[in-house]
Amino acid sequence: KNATVFYGNANNAVRGETPEEAARLDDRLIEAWSRHPHFRVIENFSGFEGKMRLLVAEIATCLGEPVPPEIRRRYLIDYPDTEMLEGLEDCHRIEIEQAYLRSAENVEIRIRSQKSGADSMFYETRYLLSEGKRRLDSELRLSAHNYHKMLAHADPDRGRLKKTRYRLNWKGTNFDIDLYEM
């Protein structure tokens, strides 16, 4: 979904095209680069500072470095009105499936697919376990081929986790609402 509100001249005085023309050019650029193995789109749903945080995290992921830490708080909430969420302009629905792989005793490896509209992304996340603590070691982007290949090593005792995530930004703060499949 193009954020045509960001394509106007108010935030870019040298832009010569209309918001609709800019959105079409954006779509053409995405199509032209979409098959490149390092192609990334940094979403525009959390303001400029949020977009820069996503950019830094994506660069770290591509380099196999730990993603910069962020403060996360988790809350148990009543089941939300999903129609209302999907009607919000800045709310994005993401389908997530993750599996845990068989691994060494002090390492936890999970792989996940994230689908938003027609776009899919795949990740491998490794945690080191020591003295009862879990520490993020690395997170890497995977190709679809490697993701499906790695699924063959999923731990059958742990099953697969499926959830729908609604991601939204409210007053500069990002929120993820996860609804788990039972």
Describe the protein in words.
With 182 residues, the protein is an alpha+beta fold. 25% of the residues lie in helices and 34% in strands. It is built from four helices and six strands; from the N terminus they run H-H-H-E-E-E-E-H-E-E. It has helices at residues 19-33, 47-63, 82-87, 144-150, and strands at residues 91-101, 107-116, 119-130, 133-142, 160-170, 173-180. It has a six-stranded antiparallel sheet with strand order 4-3-2-1-5-6. A hairpin with a 2-residue loop joins strand 2 and strand 3. The chain is globular and about 60 Å long. The two termini are 30 Å apart. 4% of the residues are buried.
